[in-house]
Write a structure and sequence with these properties.
Elements lengths: L2 E6 L8 H9 L10 E9 L2 E9 L8 H5 L5 E4 L2 E4 L9 H5 L6 E3 L2 E3 L5 H5 L5 H5 L5 E5 H15 L7 E3 L9 E5 L16 H45 L17
Parallel strand pairs: 1-10
Antiparallel strand pairs: 1-8, 2-3, 4-5, 6-7, 9-10
Length: 258
């Protein structure tokens, strides 16, 4: 069964264990991180509460990064967005298109969290989830994660009246559901993520147009080849009728070589 992530911001203690585990497990360069933790303050004075923002890939179902990628370097698999940097052309379309500002360029190619694809394919658990000491992160079948998220939000409403589950409807549904203690906008999470204009233009106009041009070019080349071959055969027949068809060595059949 396909699995997704649960991120419970009400349980995150800001230890950055997930950040370190992700870097080490995925062997990321020193200056590259797939997860960023930062402090946040919720509420209005004097009713304030603290927490932590956890910026990472949300694995959108209707993923702008996947939609604009011209090479297939970004793709969807098992409800998560994956990346194969070896196919990246360095166009940076994904960087500009993502409404969550997730993909980054490293050494001229795009990269981001791919849900620990190799680990999970082998039956393991993503590195960040393995090391979380406060049970703020989970990974499992979508129906189980969804039920768990709503159960946690229900319990947390005693302390956080606005607690809710974020990610069930955004960008077609996320591969990471967030238990949020406040309204999404208060936490820097867009309630209605807007895909940048470049993504719409690419998906609706440029990409289909490119396929159309490519298809037309192939068809045109095919017709040109057929016409050229017909003309060549016609010339050979005319030469044969005149008794002067050339031999394969480039001399006329009736010519005697010296």
């Amino acid at each position: 069964m396909r699995s997704i992530f649960l991120l419970d911001l009400t349980q995150c203690i800001g230890c950055e264990g997930c950040v370190i585990a992700c870097k080490v497990g995925n062997e990321l360069p020193e200056d590259v991180t797939y997860i960023e933790i930062s402090e946040q303050v919720h509420g209005t004075f004097p009713n304030l509460s603290g927490g932590f923002a956890n910026h990472r890939c949300y694995h959108c179902t209707d993923a702008a990064c996947v939609n604009v990628c011209p090479t297939g370097a970004l793709f969807q698999e098992d409800e998560l967005t994956r990346v194969d940097s070896s196919l990246c052309s360095g166009c940076q379309y994904c960087v500009r298109a993502c409404p969550y500002d997730v993909p980054v360029m490293v050494d001229g190619v795009a990269t981001k969290c791919d849900g620990c694809r190799d680990v999970t394919k082998a039956g393991g658990t993503p590195w960040c989830v393995q090391t979380c000491p406060s049970d703020a992160l989970r990974f499992g079948p979508r129906d189980e994660i969804t039920a768990e998220a709503h159960q946690r939000a229900s319990v947390m409403r005693e302390k956080y009246p606005s607690a809710q589950v974020y990610g069930e409807s955004q960008t077609g549904g996320l591969g990471l559901l967030v238990v949020a203690p406040e309204d999404p906008d208060e936490l820097g999470l867009p309630a209605d993520p807007q895909v940048p204009f470049i993504s719409t233009v690419w998906q609706d106009i440029v990409k289909p147009g490119g396929f159309a041009i490519t298809g037309f070019s192939i068809v045109a080349a095919g017709f040109a080849g057929i016409i050229a071959r017909r003309n060549h055969m016609k010339e050979l027949r005319e030469l044969a009728e005149q008794g002067a068809a050339p031999s394969h060595d480039g001399h006329d059949d009736g010519e005697v070589q010296q």
